[in-house]
Structures are given as C-alpha cells and as structure tokens.
Amino acid sequence: MAIDFSYKGKEYPTLVDLAKALPINSAKLVQWTEDADKFSAEAGSLCYESYPHLGIVNHCRDSGHNTVLEHNLFTFVKKVPIFVARQDMRARHATFDERSLRYVRLKDGGFEYYIPPELKKTGREHELDQWIYHHEKAFELYGHYTDEEIMENERARALLPLGIATMYTDSRNAVGWRHHAIKRLCLRAQQEIRLLYRSITKQLISKAPRLFGDLNMPCYMKQGCGESKPCGLIELDLKTNRALSYEKKLSRQSDSKKVYLTK
C-alpha cells in the first residue's frame, strides 16, 4: 500500500495534521493499492488462466464483474461540513473514523464553518454578516458551557450548526468508490457533495485509470440517468435515458469490444 500525507507540496507528520490543513469541503487520497489496475488484471486473468492484459479490467468493469475490482483499497481523509458528511456516510461497504465531538473539544482554530457561495456575492454582505455572527455566537456559547464546566463536550455539541467542519478517514474498495461516485456526480446531487466527488474521482483516476477512468455523470455512462425527475440540463435519449452526446460517441465506435480488449 502506498501512503501520502502531503498536500500542496508540504509533507505532514500525521493524518491529524494533514486533516487540519485541508480547506473545508475537500478530500485527499492518503493510502491506496499500488498498481491497482495491474493487480485487477492479474485477478481477472486467474479466472480464465489467461494473460493479464489490462483490457481485462475494462471488460470486468463494464460487465459488472465487480469482484475483480474489489481487491483494491483506497483511503481518503476528508474535511467537510457536517451536512455533507451525513450524506457521504450513507455509503455502504465503507469504513469511517470521524473526529468525535464527544471527546474532542473544539478550540484553538478547530471551529471552522462553511460559507455558501451565494453569500459571497456582491449585495449579500448583510446576509453574510448574519451567517458569520450566528456561527461565531454558537461557538462562543459552546466555549462558555464547556469552559465553565456547565456541561460536558458531548452535550454542548448539540448547540453547534450543521455547517461546521468535521474530519474523518474513509476507506472503500474500488467498487464502493465507483458506486457512490456515480450517485454523487449526478447533477441532481447537492452541489457541495458533487464538487467533493469530482475531486475524489480525479484523484482516483490518477492512481488507477482503468478502474475509474470511465466515471462520469450517470447520463454519460452505460446505465444512463436513473432519476425519476431528471435535472433537465442535459438532453437525454428517450429510449436509453443517456445523454445524446454520449449516444453519438457510442455510435462512432465501430467495435466496442475491440476497444475494451486492447492493452
């Protein structure tokens, strides 16, 4: 397994230090199976006693033979608003370890909170000031309750808004990341988690392009749009529910099987 605790050219001694350095609503790949594409090819070739061409990975990925992909593990550390984390943690077949506000007291710069982009626009200065005031006031009261030992951390945390940052480690195999990324890359997903998964997907592709290189919005993938109420922003083929531009791309492929089975 490869491990990387660096961010923007700086190495951090521990995962805690790295997590604190991340901006809110971001994720950093910190551990992964090296040569994941090649190992998946090896696992797939064992099934057929064949040579481990990388095209096997494409074939298994696109055919839903998920066990070949599941041998590879990828771990991210994340710093996101609590409301994003609660959506993220709905993922199945994932392992999470989150900073516990039952035992950890927010102090010394640990109180970070999300500011929506709408409040950063010109003319929204008053609303932005209100947003900041209410979050800072909540932290002031939280500090008072805990400093004066009026109540324990675990109870005082109930006062804190859902926009404050939480940090956690998230490990999944390749299939787990694929499944949830497809759901969250959809334009119907909330913007914050959609942007988070764009970053996650980009990092996954950089380490294993065969396992993750096809990841996109669902309407640009084999399964097409599965929403009962599509976003209305992308023109879909009425039969397949896939983006028309994606359908045109498929029609230009003379023989998709030959494409998948190339090295």
From TrEMBL:
Lineage: Bacteria, Bacillati, Bacillota, Bacilli, Bacillales
Organism of this sequence: Vulcanibacillus modesticaldus
SUPFAM superfamilies: Thymidylate synthase-complementing protein Thy1
Biological process per Gene Ontology, one example term: dTMP biosynthetic process
Molecular function via GO: flavin adenine dinucleotide binding; NADPH binding; thymidylate synthase (FAD) activity; thymidylate synthase activity
Enzyme class: transferase
Protein name (Swiss-Prot/TrEMBL): FAD-dependent thymidylate synthase
Enzyme Commission number(s): 2.1.1.148
InterPro entries on file: Thymidylate_synthase_ThyX, Thymidylate_synthase_ThyX_sf
